[in-house]
Design a protein that fits this description.
Blueprint: H1 4-24, H2 33-39, H3 41-57, H4 63-75, E1 78-79, E2 84-85, E3 90-91, E4 98-99, E5 104-105, E6 110-111, E7 116-118, E8 130-131, E9 136-137, E10 142-144, E11 148-149, E12 154-155, E13 160-161, E14 170-172, E15 177-179, H5 199-222
Parallel strand pairs: 1-4, 2-5, 3-6, 4-7, 5-8, 6-9, 7-10, 8-11, 9-12, 10-13, 12-14
Antiparallel strand pairs: 14-15
Helix pairs in contact: 1-3, 3-4
Length: 246
């Protein structure tokens, strides 16, 4: 049943959620915990979910789902009462966020608006993603199916992820591709979605380099004059400063 122990657990989780909002939201700098609790929709959705989840685990009928529906109408964030969410989740803005029934979210995860942790098909059982600790998921990203997002991974905005993501990887594109930034796998919610690599452009650049090598080899064999290599323009020119201040 939902007793004092459950109430204390919800209170502790709420304190961690508020601390996460203060640490990861620039708009929360200098804002009191009371104001965050009163005005941050992501906090409202998490508080409602934590209570609804405790009631769901206690076997309470109707009330947990009713709370989920009401919270969706107020905040635009839909979290199934059965979803398991760890400590320190931060939902920034939150409108359009959907977290499915069998989703599992670890500690210190950051979700931006429009993120979906959804299922695929009509199968039963585990059908939603498992997100491990310290993962950052950008705006509009869709994670579909019973996949696992490894510790410290970063999912780029509007990526569609349908396969497992290794720990500390950065994923971009549709379907999502794990990439490296400056030869390393970055970790943490720095929110810099501008300077992520473009795996398609990199693949085309590799093909263009290979074609250039072949043309030079053919020119030497045939005695023809070498042609100037064709210019490969980036598909997505990167401009601007890191929005996270880096």
């Amino acid at each position: 049943m939902f007793g004092l122990g459950s109430f204390a657990r919800v209170a502790n989780e709420l304190r961690r959620d508020i601390a996460a909002a203060r640490a990861r939201d620039p708009a929360a700098q200098g804002v009191s915990p009371v104001e965050i609790l009163a005005t941050w929709p992501g906090i409202h959705a998490l508080l409602s979910h934590r209570v609804a989840h405790a009631l769901h685990e206690a076997g309470m009928p109707l009330v947990p789902r009713s709370m989920s529906v009401f919270t969706r109408a107020v905040t635009g964030i839909e979290i199934h009462p059965a979803a398991m969410i760890g400590r320190g989740l931060f939902i920034d803005h939150g409108s359009g966020v959907v977290i499915g029934e069998t989703a599992r979210i670890g500690d210190d995860v950051t979700l931006y608006q429009g993120v979906t942790l959804g299922g695929t098909g009509f199968q039963t059982g585990k059908r939603h993603p498992t997100v491990e600790d310290n993962v950052t998921i950008g705006s509009g990203a869709k994670l579909l199916g019973p996949i696992t997002i490894g510790h410290g991974a970063k999912i780029g905005a509007n990526s569609v992820v349908i396969t497992d993501v290794p720990p500390n990887a950065t994923v971009v594109g549709n379907p999502g591709h794990p990439v490296r930034v400056d030869g390393r796998r970055p970790e943490g919610p720095d929110a810099d979605w501008i300077h992520l690599p473009d795996p398609i452009a990199e693949a085309i650049q590799g093909l263009a380099t290979r074609i250039g090598d072949l043309e030079r080899a053919v020119s030497k064999l045939s005695g023809e004059q070498e042609r100037a290599p064709a210019e490969v323009r980036p598909l997505r020119p990167v401009r601007g400063q890191n929005p996270a201040g880096g």
